Amino acid sequence: MAHARHERAMEWPHTLDVDALLADGWTPRPFRSFILKIHGRCDLACDYCYFYRGADQSWRAQPRTMSRAVVEQTARRVAEHVRAHRLPRVNVVLHGGEPLLATPGLTAYAVRTIREQVGTAAEVRVSVQTNGLRLDDERVRLFAELGVRIGVSLDGDRDAHDRHRRTPGGRGTFERVAAAVHRLSAGPHRRLFAGLLCTIDLRNDPVRTYEALLRFQPPAVDFLLPHGNWNSPPPRRLPGSPDTPYGDWLIAVFDRWYDAAAKETGIRLFEEIINLLCGGVSTVEGIGLAPIRYLVIETDGSIGQGDALKVAYPGAPWTGFHVETTPFDAALFAAPFVARQIGVAALGPTCRGCGLHRVCGAGHYAHRYRAGDGFANPTVYCPDLYKLITHVRARVAADVLRPRG
User: With 154 labelled, which of 49, 174, 175, 395 sits at a CA distance of 20 to 30 A?
Assistant: First the structure.
């Protein structure tokens, strides 16, 4: 790990002069989301998994489960941060691995301990992101009791989902996941249903995939571009090529979604692009220039950045901080976190010269990495995002300018 850090010392963002930024009057924005890795292993063997198959393999050295001692120290740090910055609300995301591998007892302990530590100082909103295999009635009742919203990963219909999201023994999981989502969506606890997360596979028909997800009546859908970068590109994304396979795929979904007679669900990527085109501020990662305000707590209590960075190089999410020894405020002044809060100043010259940079924001931070200059690049999906954004802009502008009869 030490060798990896030394090797990247001259790459962005490690070259960032934080002291100069502070001297110029820049101040960090406090964290408002905390991702807890309450379990570090998974019961699936997805072939596209960036967490277990990425360049960073630090999960192998992590405990399988977060201890109650780490939960308690994390809760104290969250409460400390809330009070220091007078935050009215914060988000806690139970994550993994697969968070439902953690016992119901540990899950309840984590949620209750954080809320008890924060007390009345702020509202603590809790959610969980799961593969759905263990989302049975008992778990749903527990989440209802705790007030935990539930997001589920589902890649479309049976063929699309089972192509990648299989058990270690090679069995498909669509039937079990679909049954769990149907129970959640149509049952008495639908209010807990946060939405579906779908990883794009260009082999899947885009409209068919979207309509397969609609059958579950999700309140929202997130379409996830496969994580990759300039050195490890995603499938069929040739770095530097003007081809737009992912842009074309997303445009097909956008037109189907936008042309519907009535709103069928929210698609966050499209809604955020429209919001940004209209002068708004992004609320999701991967689009726009809003400061990134979350951190990750690993099962051993280490404080890290987002998991998607694991596709870059060994140690990419590493910070050297730990909840036992480091207040979250210290992380606010670390270059990797600062670089994701300074907006246009973090963009390379190619992006700053692009007329869409305030909407695109150079794309997802993890997708910008290139060995030698780090993350100061456009996203490897640059042509795709450019085509998607210009298409959305043209469709929305045509509606705005259409004469009213």
Answer: 395
* Measured distance CA(309)–CA(196) in Å, rounded: 22
In sequence order, the β-bridge partners of residue 12 are 374
3: pLDDT confidence band, cut at 50, 70 and 90?
very low
Q: What is the DSSP letter of 291?
A: P
CA torsion sign, 334 to 340 to 342 to 344? positive
Orientation of helix 245-258 relative to helix 206-214, angle to 10°: 40
Please answer whether residues 287 and 361 qualify as being in contact, where contact means their C-beta atoms are separated by less than 8 angstroms: yes
Q: Is the pLDDT of residue 163 over 80?
A: yes
pLDDT at 8 over 80: no
CB 304 within 8 A of CB 318: yes
User: In angstroms, rounded to a whole number, what is the distance separating the alpha carbons of residues 405 and 395?
Assistant: 19
Contact, 305 vs 337, CB < 8 A?
Answer: yes
In the chain, count H helices and then E strands. 16, 10
For residues 81 and 327, the answer to whether their CB atoms sit within 8 Å is: yes
What letter does residue 99 receive in the DSSP assignment?
G
320's CB contacts (< 8 A; 6+ apart) are none
Separation of alpha carbons 272 and 397, rounded Å: 16
Q: Map tokens 């959640």 to a residue.
A: 184
Sign of CA dihedral 37, 38, 41, 43: negative
Question: What mean pLDDT do residues 89-115 have?
Answer: 98
Contact (CB, 8 A) for 66 and 36: yes
Contact 197, 153 (CB under 8 A): yes
Contact 114, 92 (CB under 8 A): yes
CA-to-CA distance for 379 and 391, rounded, in angstroms? 18
Backbone angles phi, psi at 292, to 5 degrees: -80, 125
**Token duo for residue 57:** 């393999």
| Per-residue pLDDT at 4 exceeds 80 | no
pLDDT digits over 11-57, tens only?
999 999 999 999 999 999 999 999 999 999 999 999 999 889 999 99
Contacts of 69 (CB under 8 A, 6+ apart): none
- In the block, residue with structure tokens 């030698």: 372
Q: pLDDT value at position 405? A: 59
First to last CA, the chain: 65
Confidence (pTM): 0.95
